[in-house]
Amino acid sequence: MTDSMCFSRLGMVDLSLVYLVPTFLIPQIVGGLLLGVGFVIGGYCPGTSCVSAATGRIDGMVYIFRNDCGATRFWGSLPPDRSVSRHSTSMGQITLPKLFDLPYGLLVFAGRV
């Protein structure tokens, strides 16, 4: 059981007040694939690229620079109201337990096995 679940059961945390970011399936899948491909091509994830740049490695610095350029280019390509995700595959606020109709404890246990 996660800490938040334990605190919820003890009455210390009200999980209904925890904000969940809405799920927009297609934009989140595309974004995840783009980030994953960038990680594979660059050979770094964001944390390790920052560490390598901080230690003076040129490839880490180039990776961070290219990452920032790509993010800026993508952000600049969006419509002025930044509403791309609001119009595609909105699923609301979902969690795996809600999606699969399973108790939280079972998924936590399955994740630790």
What does this structure look like?
By secondary structure, the protein is mostly helical. 60% of the residues lie in helices and 4% in strands. It is built from six helices and two strands. The protein has helices spanning 3-9, 25-42, 46-54, 58-77, 96-100, 104-112, and strands spanning 23-24, 90-92. Strands 1-2 form a two-stranded antiparallel sheet. It is extended. The mean pLDDT is 80.
Category by helix and strand content: mainly alpha
Biggest sheet descriptor: 2 strands, antiparallel
- Count of individual helical segments: 6
Using the alpha-carbon principal axes, give the shape: extended
The count of strands amounts to 2
Average the pLDDT over all residues and give the rounded result: 80
Low-confidence stretches: none
How far the N terminus sits from the C terminus, by CA atoms, comes to 13 Å
Strands side by side in the biggest sheet:
1-2
Helix content: 55-70%
- Share in β-strands: under 5%
Topology:
Blueprint: H1 3-9, E1 23-24, H2 25-42, H3 46-54, H4 58-77, E2 90-92, H5 96-100, H6 104-112
Antiparallel strand pairs: 1-2
Which features would summarize this protein structure in a list?
mainly alpha, 2 strands
Concise description?
With 113 residues, the protein is mostly helical. 60% of the residues lie in helices and 4% in strands. It has six helices and two strands, in the order αβαααβαα.
